[in-house]
Design goal:
414 residues, six-stranded antiparallel sheet, four-stranded antiparallel sheet, alpha+beta, Immunoglobulin-like, SYT4 protein
Length: 414
């Protein structure tokens, strides 16, 4: 009787030990996973707070030093911008304290030595006052100033860009005389990293204070990169308005000593002319017996650059209209990095009426962009009411049905 009892006791102790050991191993694995750096290409910090659940470096910011943080806290005035999470709303934003949004006070209190820029690029309070006294014609030429900071974290091998604020933006909404600005940023020349800020409503002096951290960029390659900031105003009912752009070549900018604060004037975007939109080769054939229209998108040539980064990634969107109402749409595949794309894609449309009098076709050549809305490179319309080669091509397919007719057409503004 004693032997089974002893065996039962040892079995119970063995079971308890095995369960405890298994629980301890699971806890160790869970803690080791939580300490690992998350596999994000970049980390977005909104108003100084990491929006991801994992914190990469406990309570420390990237590239921040405890001594420098202590100095900043001691030098910061009482009325400066501070993070108070209890005062935030559900979206993480601070409640408005005044009807007019002012620029960040921490930027106004910065000493001139932090902005190691040329005189023409720096903005002083006196110059800001003088801007308000300019005439209406001069104000239209002034597109505002962008404030941002650059930093490289050698420990994490990460490039950090903080978009602080913009001042003196023009009003894009004529009714409310204000804008809904946001910023799209691209690292050139490869366009691998594309990010954008949130939209701030009805303000000409938006304070974004958003940080983007890009991993996997060696410090030796920083000199070969260029930052492209596109400042836009959100429009709910149509295409967003482009306010301007800022281009920052990083060649000659030294980031080894720490964070560098910079400001740049926003310049007008380099708008392409109609003659520089390129050409599109289209083949059409009208089958009167089956009442169908065959459209072949053959080639595109001499397409312009979509932005300062280089070549476009074009594709063609085909829209069929009946009495100015779109009844069908098709699109080609995307051709990567080429100004002379070869598509050779065929589409067959059923015509809902006899004849082509009320039918028209619209071709939109767009630049594929994963990070944001695709940009229209050029537009072409073929129909009985179209002018130039578009009208001539349409007349020929009506006069010669069942014949495939191809023509080159110049693209116009999108």
């Amino acid at each position: 009787d004693e032997i089974p009892t002893v065996v039962g006791i040892f079995s119970a102790f063995g079971l308890v030990f095995s369960v405890s050991l298994f629980a301890w191993i699971c806890c160790q694995r869970k803690s080791s996973k939580s300490n690992k750096t998350p596999p994000y290409k970049f980390v977005h910090v909104l108003k100084g707070v990491d929006i991801y659940p994992e914190n990469l470096n406990s309570k420390k910011k990237f590239g921040a030093d405890e001594k420098s943080e202590a100095k900043n806290k001691s030098a910061m005035p009482k009325n400066s911008l501070q993070l108070d999470l209890e005062k935030r709303d559900l979206n993480g934003n601070f409640p408005k304290t005044s009807p007019k949004i002012q620029s960040s006070p921490d930027l106004e209190n910065l000493s001139p030595k932090h902005f190691a820029e040329r005189k023409k690029d720096s903005v002083s309070p006196d110059s800001l006052k003088s801007i308000t006294s300019l005439s209406s014609e001069d104000k239209q030429d002034k597109l505002g100033t962008l404030f941002f900071s650059l930093e490289y974290n050698f420990e994490k091998k990460a490039f950090v860009v903080n978009i602080k604020e913009a001042r003196g933006l023009p009003a894009m909404d004529e009714q409310s005389m204000t804008s809904d600005p946001y910023i799209k940023m691209t690292i050139l020349p490869e366009k691998k990293h594309k990010v954008k800020t949130r939209v701030l409503r009805k303000t000409l002096d938006p304070a974004f204070d958003e940080t983007f951290t890009f991993y996997g960029i060696p410090y030796s390659q920083i000199q070969d990169l260029t930052l492209h900031f596109m400042i836009l105003s959100f429009d709910r009912f149509s295409r967003d308005d482009v306010i301007g752009e800022v281009l920052i070549p990083l060649a000659g900018i030294e980031l080894s000593e720490g964070r560098l604060l910079m400001d740049r004037e926003i310049v007008k975007r380099n708008v392409r002319k109609s003659s520089g939109r390129g050409e599109l080769l289209i083949s059409l054939c009208y089958q009167s017996t089956t009442n169908t229209l065959t459209v072949v998108v053959l080639k595109a040539r001499h397409l312009p650059k979509s932005d300062v980064s280089g070549l476009s990634d074009p594709y063609v969107k085909v829209n069929l209209y009946h009495a100015k109402k779109r009844i069908s749409k098709k699109k080609t595949h995307v051709k990567k990095c080429t100004p002379n794309a070869v598509f050779n894609e065929l589409f067959v449309f059923d015509i809902p009426c006899e004849g082509l009098d009320d039918i028209s076709i619209e071709f939109l050549v767009l630049d594929s962009d994963r990070g944001s809305r695709n940009e229209v490179i050029g537009r072409l319309t073929l129909g009985s009411s179209a002018e130039g080669t578009g009208g001539e091509h349409w007349k020929e397919i009506c006069e010669y049905p069942r014949r495939q007719i191809a023509k080159w057409h110049m693209l116009c503004d999108g």
